[in-house]
TrEMBL record:
Protein name (database record): Putative TRAP dicarboxylate transporter, DctP-like periplasmic subunit
Keywords: Plasmid, Signal
GO BP terms in the entry: transmembrane transport
Gene3D superfamilies: Bacterial extracellular solute-binding protein, family 7 (3.40.190.170)
PANTHER family reported in the protein's UniProt record: PTHR33376, SIALIC ACID-BINDING PERIPLASMIC PROTEIN SIAP
UniProt KW Cytoplasm keyword: no
Amino acid sequence: MASIGFGFTLAGGQKALAEVLADEAAKKAAAKHILTMGLDATLNQFPGRVGTPHVVWVHGAPEFKAAVERQSQGQIYVEVHDGGALGGQAELLKKVQQGAVQAGSCSMQNAAQLVPVLNVLDVPYAIGRDDNFWRLLFSKEFNDIFRKGTEDRRLVVAFAHPWRRKVMLSHNVTTQVRRPEDLAGMKIRVTASKLEQMAFQILPASATPIAWAETFSALKDGVMEGLHLAPGSGYDVGMAPVIGQIIDTDWMYNTDSIWLNKTWLDALDPDLKEAVMEGAFEAQTHVFDTYKEILRDTFGIMPDSPADAGFRAAGTEMTFLTESERAIWEKTLSVADNPSLQEAIDTYGREAYDTAVKVARSDADTAPVRWWKL
């Protein structure tokens, strides 16, 4: 059952498990190529949930599997190993790079360890609001700089889903945070992102590296006051009961992505390679079309979220900054006022950074395009 992904067996609906397994076995036997895809989360973990039944950072994976198999007319079978069966994100990406598996899930932030130029996407407030990220992702400039940077390391971004990170504080924090100085003295859990760590060195909070498995208890017991994360990811791992407030600081993203091995992809016949890319386009379009609904109705973190959605239903207070308040955060974390950020940009790619900012803040369209044809 693990060979096709537990979530896909559940997704059989009215079909008996044996019938689902038989159908998948028949498709696999008839296929000319097997695309093994590892996911570091479980599919269909929340059956019947509004927006997506899957853990959010593998959103779009079922659509990708279905689209590739259909577009290739059954010549490619996508074999899914979900639930972290093939490892966590960093381990998965290395397996994809090495060709041990053909596809896997990993955020661009974790991928930056292998592709350093991706770090410039995390410079505080470099990209801005969601439309800016989509505009950048579907641009030729993104192809020429960032996709090329990954492909030089035998990795291809199949599709991506950017969720903006926010400051999330535990119920133990009684102060409403609206300005950077309100974080003074607080211990905030951060990831391995170099630019995220640098941002917290600038802020009056203390960046606290702590194992992910220990984060819930650390928040509950007051060992630390908060974490910096895309709220959807926090909700899906059960953080809602210990999160008292979320502040839409929004200076960087969790850019969760599905990656392909470039060597495997390039070895396919041209029509089958195109089928994989069309499958990626369908998955990317699905993510683009549904992300606002998921943020609003699944995780309850938008101003117009219903009262019974996600964090709102859990009683978490959402703090939406005014434009003047947000300007203070942007000023505090501005590149112009922080030499350490300037140095990081020079290290990871000044031209890449300048181009990303220019494209993201242009008036180009944000709708998905077939990026590999630009």
